[in-house]
Amino acid sequence: MAKEAAGRLEWRTNVPDETSKKLEPDYGLVGKTWLRLKCVMGGLVMKVWGFLEKVWTLGVAEPRKVIHCARVGLALSIVSLFYYIRPLYDDFGGNVMWAVMTVVVVFEYTVGATLSKCINRATGTILAGALGVGIHWVADRSGDKLKPIVLGVSVFFFASAATFSRFIPSVKARFDYGAMIFILTFSLVSVSAYRMVELFELAQDRLSTVAIGASLCILVTMLFCPIWAGCELHRLIHQNMEKLVDSLDGCVAHYFKDSGNLTISEEDLNKKIQGYKCVLNSKATEESMCNFARWEPTHGRFNFGHPWKQYLKIGASLRRCAYCIETLNSCVGSDIEAPPCIRKHLSDKCLKVSSYSTNVLKELAITIMKMKKSSKIEFRVAEMNFGVQELRDALKSLPSHLLAPPSSTGEESTEATSVPIKKADVLPPIMKVLPLITVVSLLEEIAARIGGVADAVEELASLAEFKPAKDRKPKQNLPTNKIISDNLNRQTI
Amino acid sequence: MAKEAAGRLEWRTNVPDETSKKLEPDYGLVGKTWLRLKCVMGGLVMKVWGFLEKVWTLGVAEPRKVIHCARVGLALSIVSLFYYIRPLYDDFGGNVMWAVMTVVVVFEYTVGATLSKCINRATGTILAGALGVGIHWVADRSGDKLKPIVLGVSVFFFASAATFSRFIPSVKARFDYGAMIFILTFSLVSVSAYRMVELFELAQDRLSTVAIGASLCILVTMLFCPIWAGCELHRLIHQNMEKLVDSLDGCVAHYFKDSGNLTISEEDLNKKIQGYKCVLNSKATEESMCNFARWEPTHGRFNFGHPWKQYLKIGASLRRCAYCIETLNSCVGSDIEAPPCIRKHLSDKCLKVSSYSTNVLKELAITIMKMKKSSKIEFRVAEMNFGVQELRDALKSLPSHLLAPPSSTGEESTEATSVPIKKADVLPPIMKVLPLITVVSLLEEIAARIGGVADAVEELASLAEFKPAKDRKPKQNLPTNKIISDNLNRQTI
């Protein structure tokens, strides 16, 4: 909003209209320049204000990001104490710089990422340092003339090899930073050893300052409002499930909005439907979170060996649902309307399938959130399959409707099938019901894919040894429960 | 394969089977341990061999990655000359370290990424340096007791603010590295200034070495086999189009494989079909390439102001196609088979729509590759729409087939519509044709989305001022051309 205002203001300043020119008194060149400058400054201020407002919104929406920023500031302030306190500075001197640098480079948003960087840095440094010293020893014994050549060739070879290792997917995922540090340390050690005598002392000082920086980072990140990558991944999967629930609900409600009684405004509905888009693009985030989570120690409800990789499988199955919902969403927007009688005939069943499917997803989301095995999930999945079966049954009775002249209702047409039909009456409906049939088919597919999500969550529950949940109060969040179980009792499937 | 072999070998070593035990002579404890060690070593060697083989495959598949590694090695070797050559070392001393560090940190795979990092580093360093010196000046004037407090508070405040800026999407996309360097430099300058006197000299030396490192990186990355992010993005979009062509072709061919004459093996077909999966997950790569490409100077056929952002739009529209193809792919795998007569009735039309759609995509891929406006694209799109219309017409004549008893053929059923039909005959087919109708509907949707891709490419052509292409030889790559244009002439649409 502020941006718009700024835009408008800018427009006003750049394109002064005719009327204002006539009305304004003549200020002279200086006055005009001053006026223009004032306007430009005003525009600038508005822009900055708009930016700040955006930043404020971001901060309010995700307070943990603000906390992270404060933590970075805190860690840096603590590490600067090494400069301010005389005895500490006397011990380390200029090498304190390395502690500051380590804090800046290593401190990441989540504990896992920070730990991963610290471990990578340590491993890379030690490996490269040892190798560098070794190469230096070899170079020393090969004569003064050969020395720079041996050093240069080894730098070329090892740097190239380490760079190549960064392209290997398994290395890139977990040890990318370590490989970079390896190149850096190896080059520095093997090359600077050429000129320096007190290599070991230097290395020792530098290593100790880096260790100070790294351990400070780990302490601050784990003690002050820790943000665990594992929790983030857990939350992301849970949120994605809820987004899919909203999208699926919204899509189907939007399509059958005439027949159902829609209580939500068009705008809210559209916003709800768009949820699946986040799920479509969450792969990269999930993968990096999973990689970081694997470094994290036991925290909260998660043990060290928690099956984080299974979350990726759940994420993939959720994305498969999202692809289908994306397709469903464009079918929903299709212009061709099915004849009302057919629509009515199928809408109830479709809404049921969608509500059963979302119930399964909601139950799975609860399972994930509470980390307890759900006692109801099997029932929910059976219910969903039953809904799909009902929808199929409803479809089976469709041909009679298809053949009905467009004006007649569903009830009449059942009798009408046995009388001779002219071809002209037969032709149009198939095209009209095409989108509806597609919606039905996609709903079936979505139900099948939600079954896949349920399987993935079940696998997680057994891998992570979730305990069975205590029974929740009945009918909470599940208004259609009774009707369905009645249905299930009546029609045994 | 080697991995499998290694696995097998390991299995053999760990689980010695009964028969071999009986036949083997008794070696005694030392002999056994030696044998086991030999086997373990063998397994290890096989594993390492397998890994090396994988690395070799990666290198052969993407030789440019190997070239990049050589470039990194080269740049580092050149920068080490500062240590080996006496006069150069005397000038810079230990500060040469900063040049080495800059090369390691700044050298990236593409020119754009390297430039982006260099510019970010320079901007971040200068801004933070100036601010740090300013803060130092203020701190100096606030008394000895207040000095560390002023410095500490300013480090806390600016580091937090810069960290927060990294969360703002627009900053993160282009200036993430700059913000990190800002924090680093600011902390180092403002804090170390507390203890150092010759701040300016130190800063000057450091800046000049960093500048040497950065310019070396830029020179090497631009002169030795440069890899341009823009070209990569261009190639990625082109490849994605071709992958979608393969997937769509493969999917439809797989579904109608009985009716068409399939010349390709099942395995190859499956591999072809999976192409869309790469497109589904290419968003992150496209976005980063686009961000880097915007830093690159004019190169090859791309000017500085090339509309890279439009490639993101094309990428998004390609992904929308991929979502649909993903859904189509699972419909294709459905168990329920449509009655042969209906299948036959629609398969030709479906194959036509798919072939017309892929023709559009192929033409668009050529447009992208050659960067010339296609003279045929409008015709191709019209052809695709015509194919969709034909498919719809074919669908319109379906109800008669639907009503036919399963044993009768399509030709007989046309006459059968006007005679009375029993309900029992009517019921089954609708469920049987459901997947087929869904395939038809998805094909229509895919065609519509390919239309979207065509629009996006057209927009790119006008934004980047593509020149019209010279006429290519007719019938090249386009075998169905003549038949279609005949069709078009017969049925004016």
From TrEMBL, chains A, B:
<dbReference type="InterPro" id="IPR020966">
    <property type="entry name" value="ALMT"/>
</dbReference>
<feature type="transmembrane region" description="Helical">
    <location>
        <begin position="66"/>
        <end position="85"/>
    </location>
</feature>
<keyword id="KW-1133">Transmembrane helix</keyword>
<keyword id="KW-0472">Membrane</keyword>
<feature type="transmembrane region" description="Helical">
    <location>
        <begin position="145"/>
        <end position="165"/>
    </location>
</feature>
<feature type="compositionally biased region" description="Polar residues">
    <location>
        <begin position="477"/>
        <end position="493"/>
    </location>
</feature>
<dbReference type="Pfam" id="PF11744">
    <property type="entry name" value="ALMT"/>
</dbReference>
<feature type="transmembrane region" description="Helical">
    <location>
        <begin position="177"/>
        <end position="197"/>
    </location>
</feature>
<feature type="transmembrane region" description="Helical">
    <location>
        <begin position="97"/>
        <end position="115"/>
    </location>
</feature>
<protein>
    <submittedName>
        <fullName>Aluminum activated malate transporter family protein, putative</fullName>
    </submittedName>
</protein>
<feature type="transmembrane region" description="Helical">
    <location>
        <begin position="122"/>
        <end position="139"/>
    </location>
</feature>
<keyword id="KW-0813">Transport</keyword>
<dbReference type="GO" id="GO:0015743">
    <property type="term" value="P:malate transport"/>
</dbReference>
<keyword id="KW-0406">Ion transport</keyword>
<comment type="similarity">
    <text>Belongs to the aromatic acid exporter (TC 2.A.85) family.</text>
</comment>
<feature type="transmembrane region" description="Helical">
    <location>
        <begin position="209"/>
        <end position="231"/>
    </location>
</feature>
<feature type="region of interest" description="Disordered">
    <location>
        <begin position="470"/>
        <end position="493"/>
    </location>
</feature>
<dbReference type="GO" id="GO:0009705">
    <property type="term" value="C:plant-type vacuole membrane"/>
</dbReference>
<keyword id="KW-0407">Ion channel</keyword>
<dbReference type="GO" id="GO:0034220">
    <property type="term" value="P:monoatomic ion transmembrane transport"/>
</dbReference>
<keyword id="KW-0812">Transmembrane</keyword>
